[in-house]
């Protein structure tokens, strides 16, 4: 059985794209903090033969499913092999 990898993917707006949520949060915080950008983090577990294959699959998922390439960018934040506990 192939090992499992816990993966974190970040999805952000491209530079120059207005971030309405960040602007709204800044207004709500009323001077206590300024939110410059917001984004998404996707946390998933992949079953793959090795870390290289996991990385390749993540790049494909980012391009196909996670990021709208018109206004978002995606990047791999972390790939970590999951240690199985002994039975």
Report on the architecture of this protein.
This protein has helices at 20-28, 51-66, and strands spanning 4-13, 39-47, 72-81. The protein is of the alpha+beta class and 87 residues long. The mean pLDDT is 95.
Total tally of structural domains: 1
Shape verdict: elongated
The tally of helices reads 2
The helix/strand order is: EHEHE
Question: Main sheet: which strands, in order across?
Answer: 2-1-3
Beta-strand proportion: 25-35%
Q: What proportion of the residues is helical, as a percent range? A: 25-40%
Please name the fourth-level CATH homologous superfamily. Phosphoribosylformylglycinamidine synthase subunit PurS
Instruction: Outline the low-pLDDT stretches.
Output: none
What integer value in Å does the Rg equal?
A: 17 Å
C-alpha end-to-end distance: 15 Å
Let me know the number of strands.
3
Average residue-wise pLDDT = 95
The CATH architecture classification is 2-Layer Sandwich
């Amino acid at each position: 059985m192939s090992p499992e990898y816990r993966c974190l993917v970040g999805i952000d707006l491209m530079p120059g794209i207005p971030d309405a949520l960040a602007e709204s949060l800044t207004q709500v915080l009323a001077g206590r903090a300024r939110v410059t950008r917001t984004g998404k983090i996707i946390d998933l577990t992949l079953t793959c033969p090795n870390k290289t294959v996991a990385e390749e699959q993540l790049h494909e998922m980012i391009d196909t499913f996670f990021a709208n390439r018109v206004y978002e960018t995606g990047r791999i934040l972390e790939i970590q092999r999951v240690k199985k506990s002994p039975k």
